[in-house]
Amino acid sequence: MNLSRRALLGGGVALAAALTAGAADARILPSAMGPLIGPGYKPTDRDEIGLWQQMARVEEEVAGSNLLIKDPALNRYLQGLIGKVGGPAAQDMRIYLARIPEFNAVMFPTGFTVIFSGLLLRMRNEAQLAGVIAHESGHFLRKHQIRQWRDMRTKSDVFAVLAMGAGVAGGAAGVYTGDLARLAELGTILSLFRYNRTLEAEADAMGVRLLAGAGYAPDAMAETWDQLIRELDASAKYRRKKRDRGYSLFATHPAPEARMADLRVSAREVTVPGRGYDDGRDRYLSAIAPIRPMLLDDQVKLNDPGASQTIVETLAIDGWNGLLRFHEAEVWRLRNRAGDDARAALGYAASVGYADAPPDAWRWHGVMLQKAGRGAEARAAYARYLVMAPNAPDAPFIRQLLQ
Amino acid sequence: MRRNLIAVGVAALALSACVQTKQYANVEFAPPSGDYKLLVMRPDVTVGSVTTGGMVEPRADWTETARANLLAALKTQQAGRGGNVLILEKRDGLPGVDAETIAELERLHYAVGSSIALHKYSGAYLPTKRGKGLDWTLGQDAVALGRKSGMDYALFLHAEDSFVSPGRVALQVLGIAGCAVGFCAPTIGGGGQFAYASLVDLRTGEVVWFNVLQTGSQVAGIKFGDIRTADGAAVMVERLLGRMKPGKDVARALKAAQ
């Protein structure tokens, strides 16, 4: 009986793990987040050396991927940003920009990060982008990947030994321990997810600290989350669904609301009264200018009107322009609900009122005028389109219309 | 009596552990012989250690050793057939061919190889390819590489090997010992080899021959080869590439000629 008590104890430990996994994750203080590595870091432990060796091939694959946006000036700009918020590893980290229209960025164990183009679309200024990059730098500076690997290794080892020990002990005592083993397995899995969330919270705290240290408004990270929450809500609402609130025990990241709240408090902690903080909006806009039409176009074509409209409106908080008005109209035209054609027509008309209206705004403005029976105005709009985009694929067709 | 039963059980398990290869060839494939030039495309080798919990932890030192051993064994083995082997270590290692061309061919082969794995090995057989042997091609890109490099064949090679840690062996011992008290877990497994080789004829672009090797045991701690040693690497190369069978049409013609 002695042995089976130990088996029960093993199950109890796992059960405790399962229960604590459900408790709220406490905020991690930025002041507690020092970098764990210095400049020029190279691994010395056996497991980490193995991980780095495998990653070399992964980075080669990423660096040669045809998904990358190769614009040299933009890539220099991003590399410069990681240089500002990368802490001691600022000069060691590499950054790659991939054309994937999603809000995401990934840090790999060896210090290279992949930024998704959907992230650049959503950022209103340099401070917001620097905040995300600082968060990713935090993963590298706090050695998160290898720590997570070790956590998983330890927990799977402990689970394997406990489950086997309990089974043998149960066998000897004539007690079936299969249910306990299954419970312990669940506890192990839940505690892995919990550890992942803890690391994300660490990266947030570290990120806020790096961001403020580089002279950016540290509140930018909380702003980003606020924007994302509104976007997810709008996207779900359009589809008549409820947003996944992210409070699951199986979540790899803390819930967006919790992150936003923690980031707010952390930002206040690291803000130095009287110090001026920069948001770098002009620098940011000029850096992404060459690809901004593409970013908007990729998003609009995802067929997620709730999200697309919120993104355009969020960007327009800093002021409308022809590009944003055009894509707002595109969202409506492609959504195609009752009255959307009229809305889109108004949107194109509004867009061409701005000096920076893209050629396609003139084209669609012309189409809408023509449909409304305003032939003369339509011809003028088409003519303007041809002047701006004489080599457009449909230019010969439009010329034909004008004859 | 009980102890005898365990011994019999373990022996049966050891037998159920195995070395498996399964190869497919293009119907017109004749194994390379004579004076041919073989280009080995950046061999992908990983060696790791199986933790107590069953995860594979990559080991850089073992990987380096195994890689060097495998390449040496490959050179020796191919030389025995009359082949001249050029091993491409880096994407930009072939004069006159840029790294991007190699990268694209690697990605193309990855897609084609995955398709072969799915439709020839994973059970998703295609009725349109029944009886046609290996019917896949990398197309003109591979032919162009052959023309530029002057090589006859390209070989894509992938090899994994893993070794159980002492903790895993202890767990296995416990699992077998448990049989004595009625909790029998004698097959936790872990450790073993997985490798594949894919031969592309650079004159036609076709994947002419494909082989998959798997070795493993359901009992943690029992191994069938170790590519960290020169002998073990030679064994893997021999198992993987040693017995290339000709394609169906060629085999039939050979038989008729006899």
Task: Describe the 3D structure.
The complex is a heterodimer of chains A (403) and B (258). By secondary structure, chain A is mainly alpha-helical. Helix content of chain A is 66%, strand content 3%. Chain A has a three-stranded mixed β-sheet, with helices on both faces. Chain B is globular. The relative contact order of chain B is 0.23. Classes of the chains: A mainly alpha (403), B alpha+beta (258).
Structural class of chain A: mainly alpha
- Poorly predicted ranges of chain A (pLDDT <50, ≥5 residues)? 1-24
What is the CA-CA span between the terminal residues of chain A? 98 Å
Along the chain, the helix and strand elements of chain B come as: HEEEHEHEHEHEEHH
Biggest sheet overview of chain B: 8 strands, mixed
What is the 3D shape of chain A? elongated
How much of the polypeptide of chain A forms β-strand, as a percent range?
under 5%
Number of helices of chain A: 17
Give the number of DSSP strands of chain A.
3
Mean pLDDT of chain B: 87
Assembly type of the chains comes to heterodimer
Instruction: Describe the sheet with the most strands of chain A.
Output: 3 strands, mixed
Q: Which radius of gyration of chain A do the C-alpha atoms yield? A: 26 Å
Summarize this structure as a short list of keywords or feature phrases.
heterodimer; A: 403 residues; 3-stranded mixed beta sheet; 66% helix; disordered N terminus; B: 258 residues; alpha+beta; 40% helix; 26% strand; globular
Compact overview of the structure:
The complex is a heterodimer of chains A (403) and B (258). With 403 residues, chain A is mainly alpha-helical.
List the helices and strands and how they pair.
The complex is a heterodimer of chains A (403) and B (258).
Chain A (H helix, E strand, L loop, with lengths): L1 H21 L23 H18 L8 H14 L8 E5 L6 E3 L4 E5 H6 L3 H16 L2 H30 L4 H36 L6 H19 L17 H15 L10 H8 L3 H9 L4 H11 L6 H14 L4 H12 L7 H13 L3 H14 L6 H8 L1
Parallel strand pairs in A: 1-3
Antiparallel strand pairs in A: 2-3
Helix pairs in contact in A: 1-6, 1-7, 3-5, 5-7, 5-8, 6-7, 7-9, 8-9, 8-12, 11-13, 12-13, 13-14, 14-15, 15-16, 16-17
Chain B lengths: L1 H15 L1 E8 L10 E15 L5 E3 L1 H22 L1 E6 L10 H23 L14 E2 L2 H10 L3 E12 L1 H12 L14 E10 L4 E11 L13 H12 L6 H10 L1
Parallel strand pairs in B: 2-4, 2-6
Antiparallel strand pairs in B: 1-8, 2-3, 5-8, 6-7, 7-8
Helix pairs in contact in B: 2-6
